Each structure stands twice: as structure tokens, then as C-alpha cells.
């Protein structure tokens, strides 16, 4: 009901030049109606500069009246020469209203004296509360800015079928965000729109719920948007069911009585954005109305001034202006790929959430293809030609006009405006829209190229860093972790890596990562229950729908069980976890093959949260990364395999174990120099020759690594073979010398201590020793004296005519024979060297120790002598004759 409330204006200081009044019933939809009433009134008066503030304040005050107070609301708009006053009255005067001077907490949007008054304090020039016996009135005044006389903007009266569409009752979610970005207030409409009760979200960051359409390096992020004094635009809110609801938002930065800043967010469904959206500053002129006396840039006429400085803002402004220019219900803009074979959704208004950003549509003709993208087209009724404009399928739009965006004859995009009624558009509207598209095409292409350049610079830096990281490791598990960590969250919300051991093996889920660590376990459990993607070697990303479908099915089953419609919930399988997982994988999932050396070795799977698509530039970057990651992963596999083979071969060069020698304790400590080496140039052996006789050897091949290990294997096996053939020590070494010389260029010098051991019945042991260029063995007696136990002779592998001899000696009970390689005696710390004397000094402290204890003490002394890691192989062979045991 609209009428004159008869308010006496004689007490006001300014002259009232116009008034408009309306009464709204105590129902929720009245809030949106009141907003429209105030917006239309102020636009009709030409006061577009203050429309936004007035609508925000009216929305809150009418909400207090019709929703919280539960009474009808009377709205009166009064115009004076320099200000506008708006009064909102309800019929519940006994409710307490805090005075302006009172320091009260106004943080709860459901309090009548809460958000509405807080916003009044922040936005209005003056405000107050008046009581009468039958009414309570809250009023605010907004001063008009100085501007040229005659500037006007108004929305004309429209037929009902041309008004903006809404979905049932219009709900306006009011969410307050504190200074750290956490939700501090959440009203009833927010509960209805998104499914969360206030206690579920209070204290949580808004970023946990927001699906922000933001590409790194371009446009504004949500954290920045919440800190701006005012912000208006579109994004998504993840609901309790795991799906994203596109919303149109108006943010206002305010501060409370204590000076603490916070942000008030008004949210409506995106297709109801007309409820909140700032109106045009001025109507776009018709083509041909520009005069020479007032030259104006046609681009600025259509887009407005100032033009957005980022691509996303420019595209969104474009679709909004196009929709308003043709009085449409929806509008959309798609950008073409470089090869013009596909169009990518980059901006839309008035369309439901199914029209996801970055969704791609083929251009050429055919079912589900956008065949009219290259020329202006008018579709009078889409039901006659289903799928003619794939973006509009299932949206309820009936008529549409589309025009191409072209630069120098090349298709760069497509702009369209749609309506829910058929036969709305003709060639005249197509010409008007084409005129506008021609004016903005170059600016859009320039902004797109600028964004691509920023992305490519960032991509190049990203790939260089990724290559360095991947090249820095040959460990398979670390390579898998790096692959996932580089993609999340830079390229995707979550990532999974499948590996394939060989051509006959099934893909195996090797690594899972999500940007929210709490969702990793649920995501891993979900992926483990579904079949892995097929290992297709075709390059490029392909969509994989299985995770999203499985997540939504699991969420549906869980929701039904929670309502008692299915099997009861088991312990530990809460609805929150399932819905959280569904939200995490509810968007687009793509699979990129990991191909190395012409073989598929795995798949890299990238995913987005609910109702999100990957943009093409991100997929191209992911493809570049997958090629580098595949080679790094295959290199790690080859390195691991070759290392395993090398270590297996090296272990074969060492004796499998030491035999038990009656009456003699034997122990060995061996350390090979170099990472990954188990055997180097030093070696040892102890083996039975015949009954009662044992051979032992310790040697050092010139050099380290695999080449030295090859001579090591030759020497160890030749010693055993020759000794068991009955040759004595000198003959064994002379034949070994000939075998080494036969290796030619692969031969190495070899120092070798070889001996034969005969344990005796009296507890002693007889030894025959040949020391061919090797450090002399040391004998430790029971009285602590240490002496060399052989004489030096020529080393092997140098000359052909070698004459060696053996020396026979006896180890008495309690004696220790210590044999080492030069890696022990030549251990250095700066200019100091352990040497033979240093080794002998350490050995003197080993009286009474077992053979194992002697070897361990010698090794500890060597390691403590210098702080650096050993640069040479080391072998220690200790033999001790304990003597006869007494009963």
C-alpha cells in the first residue's frame, strides 16, 4: 500500500520538495520490496550518489521492523534541497532502543538496536529514534554531494514481466566479519541460504566458506576485498551440502563505538543481484547520438568512468551494462582460446551456479557447440533449437542475442544477453549490442593479453623453481611430495599422484595432498574406494568425473542416514566429514599423464572444490609441470633401481659371513668411502682351506668406487680358489699378481696381507703371513707391548717377475693380531695424521679386550681423530687367541 503518511515537516530546518511513502507487510519479502522502493525513488529524484547507502540502511531498518519486531513497516522518503531523509516506522514502541550516547554492543544483526543503528552511525549524516504512542520511528539523513544542476538518473516504471527475477522469497544474508577476518554475526537469512546455523560458523574465517573467483597475480583477493571501505561483486559460498551458491555481495567497512573495524557483508543469490547492485551512473547513449560539440569516448560511454583496471572487473562491468542496455534477465561473456576453437566463460550475471567460470564450450557447429559465436545472432526461442547456446541450457532463458568480439578480424570472444520470455530481441537489438561490443573488444583483448603476460611471467618463474627443486633430489618419495606441494594451492585445491610400477601393474595411489590438512584423510579414503583413472598416454588434461560423483553420492547417503532414511551412521563417520570431503572434490577434476621415456609411469590428478573449473592457462602450466615431474620421477626410479643393483653387486664382493675358527676370536669392521657405496677398494676375507687350516686376507686396491670394487672381487675370489688348490701363500699371491696384470688398463695396484692360520691344541695359533706392500700387522702381547708382526714386500699389480716369501710365527694365548688398511693409519686432521705410531698407542690400551672390543676401540679412535667424514675406505681385522679354558 502506498500513500501519504501525513508526517508534519514544519519542524524540519529544510524545505521538503518531494516525498514518497509506502507501507510493507510483516513478511520477509518486504525487505527486498522496500529496498527497491527506496532505490527507485532516489533514482527518480536523480540522487544516484547516495542510493547505495540509503538502500543498505533501509534494508536493515525494515528487516528489524518486519522480521524481528514482526510488525508492518512504514517507509517515508523526504527530499530537500541539500539532503534526503528516510524514516522507517514500526508499531512496537515498547522495544528498547539504545540512545546515541550509550556505549552498547551492536554486533548482533538480529538485535533491533544492533546493526541498523550501527550502520546509521557509520553512513548517515544524522540519525535518531523518535517515539509516539503508536509508533517507533528510526530516521537517518544523507546529505547530497555537490554536483552540477540537472544531473539525474532514474529507473523507469517497467512492466512486471521485465522486472528482475527472484527465486521465491528474497533472502538477504547479513554477515559481519571482525578485524581478523572471522565471522562474528550470521543472520537467519544466511542460515536459510547456506545451511549453517550461526553457532557453526561464528569464529571461523570467511575464507573457509568463500569460493573466491580469483587467479593468483590478477584482480583482488577476498582478504583485500574485506579491508576495502566498500566493495561490490560476485563470488561463491560453500554451503553445508558441499555445493557452492553463487552470491552477489555488497561489503561495507565500519567501526564500532570502541573504534574496532569490521566488515558488514550483505549477500543475495547471484541471479537476484538487482536487489543489491549499484545502478548505472547514467544511461548509455544510442549509437549516433554523440555530437561534435561534446566528443566522448564510446568505450567510456558504455563501460562508465573510471573503467575497471583489471580484466575480471572489466568483463563483469561489460555483462552488467549489456544486460541493462537491452533490459535482459541475464548476460554473459566468453573469451576465445588462442586457436579460436573454444570459448571460456569469464563473466555472467543472472545465471545459476551451473554456469561455472572457466567452463569451456566448443565453437564449431554441432550438438552442444556454440555455432553462432562468429557472427551476430538472434534466437527468438531457444526451445525451438535446443543447445544453440550451450551456456543457457537448463536456465529457463528463451530468447537471446549474441554478438562476437573481434579484433582485426580475429574472434576474441562472444557477448550475449538473454531473457526468459521468447521473441524479446530483434536485429535492432543485435546491432545495438554489436555496436557496444565493437567499442569494448580492443580494451578486453588488451586486458586479456596483459593478464596472460602476467600469468606467463609467473608461470615461467614457477617452472624454473619447480625444475630446480625436482632436479635437486633423486629420492622417489621426496619427488612425489614435491610434485604435490608445487601444485597445491598454486594450481589446484587438491592433488593426487598415481604411480605405475610396470606395464602390467595397475595404477597405485601414492600421494594425496589438500590445501586443508584436515581433509587429506577423507580425500585419500574417497580416492581409495574408486577405480583409478585409465593410464592414457595422450598428452594434455582430461576431465575425470568419478571423484566428484562418488563424493556427492557419499554425501547424499550420509545425509539420508542422518535423517533416518537409510542405514544408521557408524561411529567415526560423521556427516561433517563426508560433506567436507564432498565440498573438497565437488568441482572439476582433471588427470594429466606422467610420461617419461615413452612410457606412462603415473598420473597427476588435480581437483577444484565445488562448482569450480580450471582455466586453460592453469591447465597448460600443469601440463608443463607434469612433463618435468614425470622425468624427475622416472630418474628417481632409475636411480633407486640402479642403486639397488649396485648395492647388491657390492654386497656380493664381501664374504657372506665369518666362519667360526676353533680357539681364535675374529672380528671385522668395514667402512666404504662415498655415498651409496657398500664396498670400495678395501676388502677382507676369512675362509677355511682344509681341515684345521684357515686363510685370511686384508687388502687395499688403489682408488675407490666401482672400478676398485671390480679388482676387489677378482682378488677375493682368486685367493679362495688358489688356496684351496693347495698353493702356499707366495704362490697364491704371485698368481694373483699375474691375473691383475692381465686386466691391462683396468688393472689397479693392490696391497695385500695374506696369511694362513692353524689353531693349536695348546691354545696358541701358528700363522704364515705374506705382506705384499700392505701396512704391517701389529701384535699386542698380554703385557701391553705392541710390535710389527711381519716384514714388508712388493705390492701386487706393478711388475711381472715377483718373488715373495712367507713368514711363520706363533700367537700365544692372550695375544691379539691387528690388521688394518691405510685408510686407518692415514686418517688426517689438518696436517696431523694418525700413522703407525698413533695406531700402536691406541692398541696398547686394548689389553684384555676381546677381538670385537679391540676392533671397536680402534674404529672409535679413528673416527674421533678427525671431524670430517672419512675420504678413504677402512677395514679392521682383529684376531685374538684367548687360550685354553680351564674347567
UniProtKB/TrEMBL annotation:
Residues annotated as domain PAS: 174-204
Keyword Hydrolase: yes
InterPro entries: Bact_Sigma-Reg, GAF, GAF-like_dom_sf, HATPase_C_sf, HATPase_dom, PAS, PAS-like_dom_sf, PAS_fold
Pfam family, one: GAF
PROSITE patterns registered for this protein in UniProt: PAS
SMART domains per UniProt: GAF, PP2C_SIG
CDD domains listed in its UniProt record: HATPase_RsbW-like (cd16936), PAS (cd00130)
Key words of the record: Hydrolase
Cross-referenced NCBIfam families: sensory_box (TIGR00229)
Full protein name: SpoIIE family protein phosphatase
Originating organism: Streptomyces longisporoflavus
